[in-house]
Each structure stands twice: as structure tokens, then as C-alpha cells.
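Section 3.1 - Work completed
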Amino acid sequence: MKNAAYFKGKKVVIAGFARSGLACANLLYSLGAAVSITDSKSDEPIRRTAASLASKDINIELGKHTKEFVLGNDILVISPGVPNEALPVVWAKGAGIPVISEIELAWMLCPATVIAITGTNGKTTVTTLIGRILEASGKNAFVCGNIGNPFSGEVEKMREEDFVSLEVSSFQLENIATFKPKVAVILNLSRNHLDRYKDMRVYLEAKKRIFMNQDNNDHLVLNSADSEISALAGLARSKVSYFSRQDGLDPNQSVVMEVGSILGIDKKIILRVFREFKGVEHRMELVTEINNVKFINDSKATTVDAAIWALNNSSPGVVLIAGGREKGNDYSLISGLVRQKVKRVIVIGEAKERIKDAFAGITAVEEALTLESAVEKAHAAALPGENVLFSPMCKSFDMFDNYEHRGMVFKKAALGLIKRKV
């Protein structure tokens, strides 16, 4: 690793004790830092995570943030879910304590070549495929981000000749300082995270940070079909190239083809990877088929655009399960597709009233208290040849730990229908 000695003896406090926070804690502890962790929650998953660190000399504050716990540290590392308005960030900045994100921490230590991917939709699939084409071409690749392990959880294993395919969110980019990927990709931009950003302009400003440290030795790949994204070329110091949908390829494959060209990977290898790729878990994942009704897990769909993509790739006769934590989505954008393809919507979670209002008079809508009961209602409504599609359009945190947990609950409920022979 680069700069490993930098953190030895440093007092570092981490805000947020989810997956990336735990990875940061373990990494910093191994580097000899004095580590503390603060999280405003104190639920059972958080307590289990804290228990996993019981053998290490790490200070942990759960269920609250206190100023005394933050002040006096040398660095504050924040997890993606922690906004800049959170008290630990406000206190740290007020005291002149540097605030960095998890990917900035990992980048400071990373010896490998980083390909970073951001955008509203498609990040997970593109990140996965880039990792696959690197591996297929004989290179050692780490796939990190909101899939697999956090960047900071893998960096200790990396060597200079390795590659990192890194999924990067706008949240993670807010507090970078030196993060500088060799290849940066911006896929698209659509209405999202307006519970965190006051408008789309601020959201775009966060995304743009992915290339702010690049120079003319680096590459920036932009979407030629998105005028707002392609216009960013004028702000870049890096070498800019564009992707557009190619014949026989979907948009995700088209951008991977462009990145593969930059990396010098043979087109035949890339096409073979595409043919063999079975998809990403929790993204249009066929779980099971019962009496000729398919159950499809699209828990990764946390935006309206992602659900639009799912419905565009579905036949009419869909029973749609949607809902979760509200994030400023405009559900009316999907009303045309709902009218064409959805026979019934079953809503769950905090956003259920807004979704009901958006689809009132367009199709039948009913509520379910739990995802399990929503699956049962959807199964009862679906006829042979139709699909039950779980494409939430919302965050998961009102009812679940994350989208993976939510997707696993859906899959368990669907598979449970078989066991009960419903």
C-alpha cells in the first residue's frame, strides 16, 4: 500500500457504522491508528457489528453523537450515508478537522489502477462487467463499491499491477480531496436523491467531482446521448471519449466496450464476457417460476428510471411491488408504462401513499404491511404467463438494512411459496 505510515498514531473517528464504516475501522486499526466510531443508531445489526470489534482497542459510541467524542481527533472519515449536515461533520469542520470519505481514505493507500463509475442508473452492472473483462484479459481485478466489499476493505490486498473497478456514488464523492481515477465514467443523470440534494444542479455538482483531479494522462468517458453529461467535456483536463448505444449492445455494454478500448482489451474477449454474463444479483434477477408466473427481484432499482428500464424489459401483465423510503422521486414519470404494462401495484413502506396517489385511476393499487405479505398478494393476483416484479423505486432503510437485505427477503418470500405449495 501507499502512504501506510501516514495513519500510524493518528487519531481517526469514523461516522457511520455500516459496511464501509466497519471496513474503514479494520483498515485503520491494522495501520496503527487510534480508531473511534460513532453512529446515531443502536439497532441490533449495529450492535452485532460493534461486537465483532470487541477484541480490538476501538472506542465505539452508539445511539448518539457527542461533540466530545469527535473533537480532538486528527481526521473524520464519513460513510456514504452520512450527510454533510450531520453533527459529527459540522463539529469536525468547525474545529478544523479534515473530513474525508471512505473512498478518499482507500485511494490514499491504493497502489492499483482505478476505473471509477458513477451515474444514476447502471453503475452496478457496468462496474461488474468492467471487472469481468479485466479478469478475462488476464489481469487481477477488484470489484468494489456498493457491490461486494467496500474499497477500504480490499485495498490491503492490492498491488501496483492490479486494477480496481469501483462503483462510486455522489455521496462518496462529496468529501474527496485527492481521489484521481485513471478512467472516470459518468453514465447518466436523472432525478434522484432529492431528499439529500436541494436540486438537480447540486446533485450534478457532486457527480462532477469524479474527474476534478484528473489530468491529461487520465480518461473521462461520457454519455453522448445525455446532453447535460456530454457538456461536461469542456470542464475536463483529461482525455475525453464518449459512449453511445452500439448495434447489438445495450447501453451498459456499450460503455464497457469503450472502457475496454481505453484499457487495450481485445473486442473478442469483451463480447465473450457479454455472452457469458448472467446478470447482477438483485437486478432483474429471476428468482423462481410458480405455475408459469415469474418472480423477478429488482431490489437494486432505487430510482424511477431503474423501474422504467425494468418495465421496458417486461411483457404486459406485471404485478408490481414498489415502495420504501422516500427520496424525492417523481413517480408520475412512470405512469405511462404502468398504464401499458402493470395490472396491479402493491405498495409498501414510507412512500406508499405518494405511489398510490401517482397511480390512482391508472391501475389497481393496494397496500401491504410487509414485503412478505406483498409477495403473497402479488402471487394471488398474477395469472399464468404474467410476472411479479419487485422494483421498489425507493431506498430500503425504512424496513431493511440495505437493498441486498431487501432483495433477500423478497427471494425468501417467493421461494417460500413453493415450499408451502401455495
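Second construct:
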Amino acid sequence: MGGGVTRDAPDIEGIAGRFQVDGPVSATRPLPGGHINDTYRVDTSRARYLLQRLNPHVFPRPDLVMENVALVSRLLTRRNASYPALIPARDGRDWVTDPAGATWRMFSLVQGVTTRERVRSPDDARGAGEAFGEFLHLLAGEAVPLHETLPGFHDTRARFARLEAVVHDDHSGRAAVAGAEIDAMLAERGLADVLPPLIASGAVPLRPVHNDAKIANVLFDDRTGAPRCVIDLDTVMAGSALHDFGDLVRSSVSPTAEDEADLSRIGVRLDLFEALVRGYLERSGDVLTKDEHRLLEFAGRLITLEQALRFLTDHLDGDRYYKIARPDHNLVRCRSQLALLRSLTEQRAALERIVAAAA
């Protein structure tokens, strides 16, 4: 995910007071690190909370996002008390709208936990796998009527069509410089045709899935180091568990930054992949179908390709979506993802053996 806009300073204390907090608000402060929403800590004499303003540029229908978040949050907290509780507004709704039209929501603040930006060790990878495996298991079997808040989010065919349209228009004049990346992407187009018929037939079922599965969205216990819960539910929609697992692979198996410019440093570490698979399968239980098990290795290649598509398309389209630090930032990100895709492809046989052994 990406995005971010500059907005006027809001009345945090006044907005917080519109929620059912325990006692009067005594302190507020902004929390850094959010790439999409604006986040604040809110304290009363008896409790701690997390207050967030949804980014309307990323989520043009915040009401639908919040209906999804409210439904899934309550299912999760009923099954696992480690998940943060959604705090209702004083008028009984699940969110608040300020005078400027912005949408706000509040959660209980989970204490005694930390996040990790990247996987550094097999223990990290296993923890990320366990957290999202449990997330899948907690929601399994539920007929959850979720809105499609980001239409076509994992429609890889449509993302290829979008890339071709942007290349054809080339309004930013960047297509010639990115010719090698465009060709490399189009050469992998066949990956986009694997899942759609399986989803249509039900062999790969639609489930409530997170759609932003990475270690940065896992809270780890400060004392034990064990994963406590998954956070950031704004992108939860009906989809394939393979999309989540593929994103875990993409973001976990090479301990390098998403914008690593030295492509020689990017590559699959088999110990990280094995730890991720074992953690995920142990916590997800018997939820996955035979076809889903068979496609776990493939999922990593598919989502890595899809993310490379997104970065390249945004670069060619003038960097409209992802925040950038320099003009070629999205192109560098694309090259990083393509390098990872090459490594995943080269290691395919070894990855399949690991999945088979773990399953």
C-alpha cells in the first residue's frame, strides 16, 4: 500500500472525546511511521487508545472500509483477546466524521508489544507465518459479507492491461528508459492466468483475507517474542489465502529493503522460506485446500510479479500512488521485485520440496 497527503492539524482531543473512552482525555500525541493513515495515541487516566484518520485518497469510501473493519475486528476479538478492540463512538456508530468530512476510528491500544519492519531471522519469518496463519484460521468458516473496497486489487490480468495502457500513453516520457523492465514483466504474463479459473471453479475458495500481509503488520510480545496479533485491517476483503501467503513470501524471504538498489544482495533464503511455511501451516490448521497447498510456492512468484507491476506502472504514470524519495524510486523498487522474482523462479524446485515436507 502507499499514499499520503498533507492535512490541517485536527482537534485530536475533541475528536477523541466523541468516542466511548474510559474517562476524560488527559494526553494526545501523534505516532510516526504510518504510510497511509494519520495515527495518534490518546490517554485517559484509566486507559490508552489508538486514534486514526483514514486517508480519503487511498480509501474513497471510508464508510465501506469501516464496515469491513468493524465486522472483522469483532470476529477476531471474540476468538482472541490479544486483538485490539474497536471503540464505538458515543452515538453508537463505529466511526466519527469531523467537520471537514474526514473519517476517524479508535482502537484500544495493545501494550507490551513491538513491530518489526523486516524479517531478519528464521524466528521472525516463523512469527509472521504464525500470525497470518492464525488470522486465516480465526476467520475460517465464517460467511463474512465484506465490501470490495479496492476493486480489482489482486486482478493481475487487469494490472497488466493497465501497464500496457500507461506504456502506450507514456505521458511522463519514461517508457524508453524502462524498456528492459517492461519486457521482463510482459514475459511473465502467463502467471496471471493461473488463479482465475481455479477461483471461478471453487478449487481455490474466496475467504476473508488481509491483503497486506507482512511482518510490519504483526504485533510481537515484548517479553516472549511471540506474535500476538495482526493489525491494519483496512484492506481486508474477500480474496484468496494465496494472495496473503504470496505477499508474506515476497516481503519475508529476502532480508533486503523493498527499494534495495544493489540487486546482487537480493535473493531467497531457504531457511526463511521454510520457517515462514511451517509457521503458517501450523497455525492455519486444516483450513487450506489441496490446491492451495500445491500453489503456495507459486503464490510467492505471483504476488512478487504483481508488486513489480504496481511499482513500474506507477513510475510510468508519474508516481501518482506511492510516496517517493527520488524520481526513479518506483523504478528501483520494480527492479528489486524483479530480482526477487528471478530468485524465486530459480529456486522453485527447492521451495516446492520445502512446502511438501512442511505439509
